[in-house]
């Protein structure tokens, strides 16, 4: 006979295990420098926002507005930089807090669909998925989109159970968050699961009818539209590029220039499903194993048929797989696009796992899977933090420069190309320079003037040493660049 005191104690232990996972991420995001390209690119945009006090237009460079994303993520990151100072932890903290919100909503829905045990394990499964764990401590916009879409879909699910207040209003608040985090994509990632959920026992239709559509739509307009109008007035052309270019022309016009701020990520159509296994690792593979296990027995197939008739399961399926379905025929994709579906996949996988957890071997295996990604990535992060020269980041190079006598980022030049991390860690003081301009600067350096510092790729080192002679000294070797110091001759 099961011990009635075991599960509350186990639930308490699961709570502290979740806290440990979140604590590991909090620690790693404080000690690991940002690597190119995404994190320092967004962090520099947030830094410029905080420095300029311009809360309307995010800026890609001091001269170029960033029309690629709405400002919600940059608002939170810039506010954190203003509050805590310009360093990696402050820039990453808002994503960690957004993931806390997503975890709370996930557990709230799981608790309503099942019990406290389902809620605790669903939180653990989500927190230990590869993409969720990484996103919780990275400077990205995706956690804020996922927060908005999760809030909307969880609110709709709770409203369908008769809990209209405050969840009916929070459905629209989630849409506003999504519109300010990523734009109209939020409407698609909420609307598609709802459309797939509608053919059921009527709960979805009842919930939709119960929502405060008129006042809720006014709430969305009041929260989101003012920024869109202000952004267009401040930098005309934004709406055409963001709404029409990013969301329409890039798909129908082969000659459209595409993303003006980064590189296209061309993948074969359908690759998003492989990304889903990567994003949900190790739980996506575990979920497939559970599915195969059920299909291999008559009782298991009967259980699956019963589950598919359950309106709660149908919502989880629709919400969990909607991002992968939507991006199946897109080539320009990233694995982070799948984050909005992971909360619902976590509950779905946990529902299949829960009946097996009373067996000690299964429970130990599940706990091992919970620890797999957090421990592996934390160990890898600790190794890179102790050996920063292995990172594709300007952080260790700039730290080595500032430790040198006379080392100053104002006198640092990157030959030919400068990574985003160099802009961020130098506070936009480092400069890009071409070959001709660099040789002229070296030749014109006044006798006895402060040294110049040049960051070069390995492929350019031989050329520069031959062109500049013996006046260059290697001061640092990193994964991307080598730091050279040029000392003008001392006057006699």
UniProtKB/TrEMBL annotation:
A GO BP annotation: protein O-linked glycosylation
Residue ranges that the Swiss-Prot or TrEMBL entry lists as coiled coil: none
Topology class, membrane: Multi-pass membrane protein
Keywords: Cell membrane, Glycosyltransferase, Membrane, Transferase, Transmembrane, Transmembrane helix
Top-level taxon of origin: Bacteria
Chief location category: membrane
Positions of the ArnT-like N-terminal domain: 36-242
Subcellular location: Cell membrane
Molecular function as annotated in GO: mannosyltransferase activity; pentosyltransferase activity
TM spans (from-to): 12-32, 89-106, 118-147, 167-198, 210-229, 272-292, 313-331, 366-386
Annotated GO CC locations: plasma membrane
A Pfam family this chain is assigned to: PMT
Keyword Heme tagged: no
Protein name per the record: Undecaprenyl phosphate-alpha-4-amino-4-deoxy-L-arabinose arabinosyl transferase
């Amino acid at each position: 006979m099961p011990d009635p005191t075991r599960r509350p104690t186990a639930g308490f232990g699961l709570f502290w295990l979740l806290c440990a996972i979140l604590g590991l991420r909090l620690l790693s995001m404080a000690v690991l420098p940002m690597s190119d390209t995404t994190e320092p690119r967004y962090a520099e945009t947030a830094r410029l926002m905080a420095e300029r006090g311009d809360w309307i237009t995010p800026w890609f460079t001091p001269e170029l507005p960033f029309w690629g994303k709405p400002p919600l993520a940059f608002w939170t990151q810039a506010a954190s930089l203003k509050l805590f100072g310009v360093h990696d932890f402050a820039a990453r903290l808002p994503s960690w807090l957004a993931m806390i919100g997503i975890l709370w909503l996930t557990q709230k829905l799981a608790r309503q669909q099942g019990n406290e045990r389902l809620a605790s394990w669903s939180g653990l499964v989500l927190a230990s998925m590869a993409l969720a764990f990484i996103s919780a401590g990275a400077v990205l916009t995706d956690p804020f989109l996922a927060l908005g879409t999760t809030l909307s879909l969880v609110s709709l699910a709770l409203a369908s159970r008769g809990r209209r207040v405050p969840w009916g209003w929070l459905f629209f608040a989630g849409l506003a968050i999504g519109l300010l985090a990523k734009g109209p994509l939020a409407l698609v990632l909420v609307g598609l699961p709802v459309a797939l959920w509608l053919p059921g026992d009527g709960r979805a239709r009842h919930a939709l009818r119960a929502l405060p559509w008129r006042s809720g739509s006014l709430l969305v307009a009041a929260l989101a539209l003012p920024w869109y109008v202000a952004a267009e007035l401040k930098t005309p052309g934004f709406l055409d590029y963001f709404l029409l270019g990013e969301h329409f022309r890039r798909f129908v016009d082969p000659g459209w220039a595409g993303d003006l701020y980064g590189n296209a990520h061309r993948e074969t159509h359908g690759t998003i499903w492989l990304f889903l296994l990567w994003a949900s690792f190790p739980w996506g593979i575990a979920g497939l194993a559970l599915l195969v296990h059920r299909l291999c027995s008559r009782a298991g197939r009967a259980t699956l048929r019963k589950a598919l008739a359950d309106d709660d399961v149908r919502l989880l399926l629709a919400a969990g797989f909607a991002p992968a379905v939507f991006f199946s025929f897109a080539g320009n994709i990233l694995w982070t696009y799948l984050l909005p579906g992971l909360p619902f996949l976590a509950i779905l996988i946990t529902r299949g796992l829960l009946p097996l957890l009373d067996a000690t071997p299964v429970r130990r295996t599940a706990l091992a899977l919970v620890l797999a990604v957090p421990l592996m990535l934390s160990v890898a992060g600790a190794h890179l933090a102790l050996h920063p020269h292995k990172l594709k980041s300007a952080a260790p190079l700039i730290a080595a420069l500032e430790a040198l006598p006379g080392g100053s980022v104002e006198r640092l030049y990157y030959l030919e190309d400068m990574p985003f991390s160099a802009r961020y860690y130098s506070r936009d003081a480092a400069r890009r320079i071409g070959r001709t301009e660099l040789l002229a600067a070296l030749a014109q350096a006044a006798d006895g003037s402060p040294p110049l510092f040049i960051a070069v790729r390995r492929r350019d080192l031989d050329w520069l040493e031959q062109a500049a002679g013996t006046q260059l000294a290697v001061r640092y070797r990193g994964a991307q660049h080598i730091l050279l110091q040029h000392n003008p001759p001392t006057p006699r």
